[in-house]
Amino acid sequence: MWFGQGLDGRFVSALTIDDIRTASGVWLLANCYAAESPWPQALYRAGADVVIAGGGINYAANASVVGVDLLARWLRYGLALGLSADHGLKLAKARLWMTKNRALSKGHPVPLRDDTLAFDIRPKEV
Question: Of 12, 13, 21, 29, which one's alpha carbon is 20 to 30 angstroms from that of 6?
Fold first, then answer.
C-alpha cells in the first residue's frame, strides 16, 4: 500500500480503502496524516490486529534509511523476536532514541525527527 502525495503535488494512492478485504496482522502506516485519516479504522474493520500510525507530517529520505523507515525496521525485529506489537514499538522507539543520541554525540546528521517518536498504536473504535 502506498498513500500520499507525488513529487508533482498530485494525490497518489496505489490501494484504496475499498480494496482492503482482509488485513490481519500488524500494520504500520508511514504516510503523512495517517493517524487522522480513515485508514486505521478501515484496517481494523478488515481484520487488522494492530494499526500503528503517526499524525501530521512524517519525514523520510530518498537516499538513506531514516525516520519511520528505521522505526519499521526495529518494530519488525521486535516482532520477529516474539514481542507483542506494543513492546515491539517500545523497542523500536528506544533504538531510535539511542541512534539519535549517538549521532548527536558524534556530530553526525540525526537520522530521525521527533515526528517518528510520536507514532503509536491507534485505538480501535467500536
Answer: 21
